[in-house]
Amino acid sequence: MEYTIRSGGYTAVVTARAAALRKLTYQGRDLVVPFPEGGPIPDYRGVVAAPWPNRIEDGRYTFDGVAFRVEANETERACALHGLAFPLDWDLVAEDEHSVTLAAEIAGDGRYPSSLRLEATYSLEGEDGLAWAVRAANTGDAAAPYGVCPHPYLVAGESPLDAWELEVPAERFLEVTPDRLLPLGERSVEGHEFDFRKPRPIGATEIDHAFTAIDFEPDGTARVAVRDVERGTGVGMEWDRSCTWLQIHTADKKPPAPNRLGLAVEPMTCPPDAFNSGTDVIRLEPGAEHTARWRIYAL
């Protein structure tokens, strides 16, 4: 099952599985890397990653003195990747020509301390692009840790990713272990190949890292811009202060897998392995809610 919404030259297709953004176009041009209808979702494209973004080391964490274990679905790194919501078929809550809202329930069990209701809303607002919001409500009787991010792969244009120009308003990034991509510590982007505070080509740089110390505008939003300068096209993504972390991934693959098809841009409420470090984890008490918002638009 999937849902199509349209407005202002934009068309978005959202799947019931994972509440994933399968396709987003502007005047027929892809703004995200799509995936085929009815099949598996490759590389978590467009999914809602909740109740944690990124990974948990060994699929193990402790919350309020209780140990929990989740499947290490990232088998090559022995980590639990992208939460519990992506395998689920989400239920339709509301739909019209310009918007759709889907919901899913996460049970409180040996994997997670409490039950959780997630609602993802996609809406096309004229020429403003795709607004995307995820609301979480703790429906159980115990507190729970929470984090969330979207997982789109942005497409600037028809030129190769190496030629795209990238702008990322972040002053620091998280160094990670090369084998498992687990956090080692923050460092400044100053003088590093990850300094994209001023727009410049991505080139051969390989990125699969979280950024922070994000420069939010006076209106409370931060923005990433990716441009295909040669073709004169591009795509932007913005988010609010609910997400103080940002994962950027150049989608590097080993042959014969398709390499560097798009740029993953994932505003996150917390960094990798946050359920173990505790860094910026949201504590959802029973009855409490949290909402995060993003927007993707053509340049």
Automatic annotation (TrEMBL):
It holds the Pfam family Aldose_epim. Transmembrane segments: none annotated. Gene3D superfamilies: 2.70.98.10. It comes from the Bacteria. InterPro entries: Aldose_1/G6P_1-epimerase, Gal_mutarotase_sf_dom, GH-type_carb-bd, YihR-like. This is Aldose 1-epimerase family protein. It comes from Sinomonas terrae.
